[in-house]
TrEMBL record:
This is ABC transporter ATP-binding protein. SUPFAM superfamilies: P-loop containing nucleoside triphosphate hydrolases. One of its GO terms (molecular function) is ATP binding. Belongs to the ABC transporter superfamily. Keywords: ATP-binding, Nucleotide-binding, Translocase, Transport. Residues 2-233 form the ABC transporter domain. InterPro entries: AAA+_ATPase, ABC_transporter-like_ATP-bd, ABC_transporter-like_CS, MacB-like_ATP-bd, P-loop_NTPase. The lineage of its organism: Bacteria, Pseudomonadati, Bacteroidota, Cytophagia, Cytophagales. Pfam families: ABC_tran (PF00005). Gene3D superfamilies: P-loop containing nucleotide triphosphate hydrolases. It comes from Nibrella viscosa.
């Protein structure tokens, strides 16, 4: 579904050059739930941004559904991103003066033609139902607990029915009970067919996914299928 070949990412400032990713080869298959671990600064966010078409690699190719997209222009990348990818971040990134429902509708506003106000509201309430927040639609983010905010962010990520969900430390700001709750929602989405890639610092959480990819200093040092995969199937 997403294939990275010989990906290299160099960040250059006037004085420093950082090799953030060094020759990464990675295939994310449809239906997978994979986690990415590694020490701070090893390139996890960079990798997720490249997979999510938010950032371009310095070298190498990215293919989505066997179609190389490395030469696409920003506008085409944005369209593809909007169609296929949902993002979840550690710090939620909700808009505080919009209601929960309005926050979840945001990705649909960028879709051409296909959504009226009514259908946007319907899709957003369905997404909120899937994360168990139907009873909070009119609330504002400041009225929600951290776990609830992250569930709103998940609803926003899935409202456009993306094929893949990229989550950058989705439980990093949550206590372990809320973190487990978020993980079970992600597992449910994966069971329903979403492909999920999650960066985490939590080894126990990573071990509940199908596949564990480890980075160190920009290099992929491990890629293991986990037993949990067979247990779950
Ligand atoms: P992680 O997510 O694993 O903490 P990052 O992908 O954020 O790692 O960063 C990888 C390396 O690239 C780090 O050394 C970081 O300092 C550097 N880096 C990340 N973003 C930038 C940037 N925009 N400009 C310069 N260096 C960056
Ligand atoms: P949790 O028990 O998950 O930590 P909180 O204790 O923060 O959650 O909140 C309990 C409930 O009260 C939540 O369902 C939340 O929606 C609601 N709530 C929290 N803060 C406010 C607020 N300022 N205004 C309205 N409702 C709130």
């Amino acid at each position: 579904m997403i294939q990275l070949t010989n990906i290299e990412k160099v960040y250059r400032t006037s004085t420093i050059e950082t090799l953030a990713l060094n020759n990464i080869n990675l295939t994310i298959r449809k239906g997978e739930f994979a986690s990415i671990m590694g020490p701070s600064g090893c390139g996890k966010s960079t990798l997720l941004n490249i997979l999510g078409l938010l950032d371009q690699p310095s070298k190498g190719t990215i293919s989505i559904d066997n179609q190389p997209v490395t030469s696409y222009k920003d506008k085409e990348l944005a369209r593809l991103r909007n169609q296929k990818i949902g993002f979840i971040f550690q710090s939620f990134h909700l808009i505080n003066d919009l209601s929960v429902l309005d926050n979840v509708e945001i990705p649909l506003l960028y879709r051409k033609g296909d959504t009226t106000g009514k259908s946007r509201r319907e899709l957003a309430s369905e997404a909120l139902e899937r994360v168990g927040l139907s009873n909070r639609m009119k609330h504002f983010p400041s009225q929600l607990s951290g776990g609830q905010k992250q569930r709103v962010a998940i609803a926003r990520a899935i409202v456009g029915q993306p094929e893949i969900i990229l989550a950058d430390e989705p439980t990093g700001n949550l206590d372990s009970a809320m973190g487990s709750e978020i993980l079970s929602i992600l597992q449910q989405l994966n069971n329903d067919g979403s492909t999920i890639l999650m960066v985490t610092h939590d080894e126990a959480m990573a071990r509940k996914t199908h596949r564990l990819i480890r980075l160190f200093d920009g290099t992929q040092v491990a890629d293991s299928q986990l037993v949990a995969n067979d247990e779950r199937l």
